[in-house]
């Protein structure tokens, strides 16, 4: 039996389940520090595999291949929350999985996630779980329109969600379609003033790093722009840090996680979701902080000491979706201030996250304006 709390030093091998951009940026951090990295992903030469030492081409739930990965690495991690928690329990026999399965199992289901937020003493968005159209009507009555219907599992970038502005005028077929996949969650649509997130990282000894709060703007439910520091009140800031620390503690966090928040027009702070992994809004930490959310993740799972996080400079990050990528590449010539990231995905698709740009700034208002004035992001 290996000593769970022993530090894993450079030269050791890290296995990552999932080979998208988050796996890629984890791998960049690990490689820079001298670790070896093996990726498990069904797509050959996926973004993370392009910058790693090896790849096992397999589905995420292929137990034999997960065991093969576990045997080949000294520590195992994942880049997304929809990993089979039971499979993780199984592969624990073969390698260290310091993140455990608590954070995974709580956060991969919207019901357990909301129950956990409430049980921890924090405010979740008002919601009801519904299984049929009858319960849908009762739910709308209870919450009051507008509401958002969401699948319990597997949603991302607004997928598996239906916004219902006017309950008198809805497409029942769409609702039935979501309900056919199982119980769904009906959430009150919050009148948003701002959306923010906080990234927290920890090592197996329980030492934590907490990153400065990031403000997020979504377009069509997909993250568009993140800025740091967030323009929020001192009171909200203190509350959000408290939520970050408490939830990290309760989830026995190892590695990096991110908590998304809604701040309503009447200044209520709601916990929206918890991602038990690095997060899109934290990409700006690569250039803006003393260490990035990915460095912190690697330090955490290898049980190295966790530093105090400093914001070296205010920053803005803007996502490059499929429809933006080509124009952004052309425009890169004119922008020495752009830190340009292209994940190397094979298929360019509309609304698919292909890369991002981070800009360090002394005046975020001006920087945000320059992004909004650039026609790249008009589509
Ligand atoms: P995911 O990120 O898993 O796709 P979210 O629940 O975070 O799902 O929803 C994506 C975005 O949709 C949020 O960041 C927010 O902009 C909007 N949204 C989702 N739920 C609500 C809500 N209850 N009230 C207001 N806006 C919401
Ligand atoms: Mg979200």
Structure overview:
It is built from 12 helices and 17 strands. The chain has 379 residues and is α+β, with helices and mostly antiparallel strands. The strands form 3 sheets. Strands 9, 10, 11, 12, 13, 14, 15, 16 and 17 form a 9-stranded antiparallel sheet that branches. A hairpin with a 5-residue loop joins strand 9 and strand 10. It starts with 12 loop residues before the first strand and ends in a 6-residue tail after the last helix. The model has no long low-confidence stretch (mean pLDDT 96). The structure holds adenosine-5'-diphosphate (ADP) and magnesium ion (MG).
Relevant terms:
379 residues; alpha+beta; 9-stranded antiparallel β-sheet; 4-stranded parallel β-sheet; globular; binds adenosine-5'-diphosphate; binds magnesium ion
């Amino acid at each position: 039996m290996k000593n769970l709390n022993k530090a894993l030093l450079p030269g050791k091998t890290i296995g990552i389940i999932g080979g998208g951009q988050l796996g890629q940026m984890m791998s960049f951090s690990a490689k820079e520090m001298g670790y070896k990295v093996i990726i498990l992903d069904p797509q050959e030469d996926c973004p993370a595999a392009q910058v790693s030492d090896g790849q096992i081409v397999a589905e995420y739930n292929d137990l034999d291949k997960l065991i093969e990965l576990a045997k080949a690495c000294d520590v195992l991690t994942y880049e997304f929350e929809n990993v089979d928690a039971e499979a993780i329990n199984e592969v624990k026999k073969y390698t260290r999985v310091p993140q455990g399965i608590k954070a995974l199992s709580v956060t991969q289901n919207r019901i357990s996630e909301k129950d956990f937020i409430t049980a921890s003493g924090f405010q979740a968005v008002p919601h009801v779980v519904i299984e049929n159209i009858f319960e849908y009507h009762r739910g709308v009555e209870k919450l009051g329109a507008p509401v958002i219907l969401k699948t319990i599992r597997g949603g991302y970038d607004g997928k598996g969600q239906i916004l219902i502005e006017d309950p008198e005028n809805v497409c029942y077929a769409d609702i039935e379609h979501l309900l056919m996949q199982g119980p769904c969650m009906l959430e009150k649509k919050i009148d948003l003033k701002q959306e923010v997130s906080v990234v927290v990282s920890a090592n197996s000894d329980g030492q934590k790093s907490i990153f400065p709060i990031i403000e997020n703007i979504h377009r069509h439910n997909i993250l568009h722009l993140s800025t740091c520091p967030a323009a929020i009140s001192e009171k909200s800031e203190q509350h959000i840090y408290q939520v970050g620390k408490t939830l990290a503690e309760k989830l026995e966090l190892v590695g990096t996680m991110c908590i998304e928040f809604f701040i309503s027009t009447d200044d209520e702070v709601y916990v929206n979701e918890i991602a038990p992994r690095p997060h899109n809004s934290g990409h700006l930490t690569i250039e803006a902080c003393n260490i990035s959310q990915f460095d912190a993740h690697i330090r955490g799972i290898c049980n190295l000491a966790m530093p105090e996080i400093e914001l070296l400079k205010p920053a803005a990050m803007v996502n490059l979706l499929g429809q933006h990528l080509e124009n952004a590449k052309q425009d890169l010539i004119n922008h020495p201030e752009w830190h340009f990231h292209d994940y190397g995905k094979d298929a360019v698709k509309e609304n698919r996250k292909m890369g991002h740009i981070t800009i360090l700034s002394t005046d975020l208002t001006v920087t945000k304006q320059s992004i909004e004035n650039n026609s790249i992001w008009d589509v």
